[in-house]
Design brief:
By secondary structure, the chain is α+β, with helices and mostly antiparallel strands. It folds into 2 domains: 146 residues; 180 residues, no CATH class. It is built from 9 helices and 19 strands. The chain starts with a helix and ends in a 44-residue tail after the last strand.
Length: 462
Amino acid sequence: MNKRQVITLWIIAIALGAAVAVTKLATKDTGKSATKRTPGQTLFEDFPAREVGKISIEGAEHSVDLAKSGENWVVSDRGDFPANTATVNQFLRDMKDLEVTQGIEAGPSFAPRFGMDMDAKDADEHGLMVRFSDGSGKELASVALGKNISGGANDNPMMGGGSVGRYVRNLGDESGFYAINEMFSAISAEPKRWLKTDFFSPEKIESVSLSKAGSDDLAWKVVRDGEEAEFKLDGAAANEVLDTTSGNPLKTLFSYARFDDVVSPEDYAERANEEKKRTAVIKTFEGFTYTVTITPPKAKKDDAAEEDAAEEEDDAASSDAHFLTVSVSAEIPKERKKEEGEKEEDAKTKDEAFATRSKELTEKLEKEKALEGRIFEVAKYTVEPLLKKRKELVKKPEPQPAAGSPGGAMPLPGGSVVTPPRPAGGRIEAVTPPIAIPPLDSAPEEKPEEAPEEPAEEGAGE
């Protein structure tokens, strides 16, 4: 083989190698995803969760702004009322770790197909626009949350495929849309959905009093002597007994209660019926006093005529929504009253329990006082036990059966009245009174038969 042949072979080999390299590169480019993020990658290359100081969420009907305050979050649209910080932080973590299940190549103009039409009035078609900013207001990231993927292998508005979850779009990535496994069902544009719903909760209630509607005059008051005792109607007349069905709910008044929303003073002035406002005072055995105002909503225009004609003082309180404010005060004992003759070991145990409870009550007072100055919207059933009138608290007397009716009283000669006893089982049987038969001794004497007269002897009387 001469030199020229060797050079020719080398040229051919280099050409073949180049062709193979070009083919591999072409194959690699062909298999590459058209979107920036591929299945298994996170939606954001680096989501700055720790730098986020504000979150804005816009929907078809509502919008909400969340702002960071120290280590916690507040709802700006509700006068900086505390937000559910755990929910907000979880949302940020989910965004940071959010993985793509499928990339769908499509331009921004296809957004309405994925439920991200920011001009749509329907909530499902509009979706949610979420913007993340730092404390100074500089935008860090934006994402659109679109339609839910209801299931099925071919539930894709563009090309088929996808997993159960939701369609999303990173507004900083115009290469396409993405399917994810996360539903984000807790994310909403309604401000009330982000509120921290911890409420006040009286414990060991001693007394409850309520004013009349639109007045400071007392409507009724109930008290009890101990935590295990029953309530009694204060100032009850001789014939007034508290009905247990009305008294028992007052023992656990506002336990586990929740509010629906926080209302602005302007909204309250527009919707609340101040003329029907009531004030309740709740006192506990541990020294807490809660002053609660309850205001029903204004009657609807369609119900105005009916309200004017009604005589009941709470006719306007038929709506489910009521407005409530609360103020809290407490006198927490600093020292325990020791019992006479206490053993040292018992005293130590009781002192520790007293210190623990005092700390709990102090923290409870601090938390509940933070609710003062706010106007809450609550469901009617939350305040239902306090909407009763005095006459509704009193046990109704059982009706007496009419005279002569089964079980009724029967008059006897001389004016006395006797009520026949009711047999067991409640049944009354009609019994025919026995017929008295006179005894033999009392039978009438029979007349003895008269003996026939004997014939007179001849010669007698002569």
